[in-house]
């Protein structure tokens, strides 16, 4: 005799099993717990048959599906019958644009990295007696850029400061 096993907590159909014969009553079969004699219905793709209240029902099986709510919070469906809520996104929303303070910090860090990188070409090009003036020019440029970035009132203005820096002004033959 064929039985249909289901999960003890969720009721989800697990498969067909052969009922064991009763050793005390040959020809009779034992019905293990969490089994049904009724055949489950055809199970469509993305669904699961579930034993509920003495009958099979078909529920959506979206377990593992990720979605994001408009507030950006990520959720994963864990239960049978649960669906993605209306208005949810199926892909992660883009991260929010950085604010002014974040851009200022990033631009200042980039100016300092540029400052350090500008020292290297000057070694061997700038005459030893001019080295202090060369470093002073670079330092002044970096300090002025930092101040201008901190004074910027918009993200665009903060980014524009670094874009406008002319680093080679202190080098012989430079732009300055």
Written account of the structure:
The chain has three helices and seven strands; from the N terminus they run E-E-E-E-E-E-E-H-H-H. By secondary structure, it is an alpha+beta fold. The protein has three domains: 2-61, no CATH class; 62-95, no CATH class; 100-170, no CATH class. A three-stranded antiparallel β-sheet has the order 2-1-3, with no helix packed on it. Residues 172-176 have low confidence and may be disordered.
Which key terms come to mind for this protein?
single chain; 176 residues; alpha+beta; 3 domains; three-stranded antiparallel β-sheet; two-stranded antiparallel ribbon; 3 helices; 7 strands; 30% helix; disordered C terminus
Question: What secondary-structure arrangement, pairings included, does this model have?
Answer:
Elements: E1 2-6, E2 13-18, E3 35-36, E4 47-52, E5 55-60, E6 66-68, E7 74-76, H1 100-122, H2 131-151, H3 155-163
Antiparallel strand pairs: 1-2, 1-3, 4-5, 6-7
Helix pairs in contact: 1-2, 1-3, 2-3
Quick structural overview:
With 176 residues, this protein is α+β, with helices and mostly antiparallel strands.
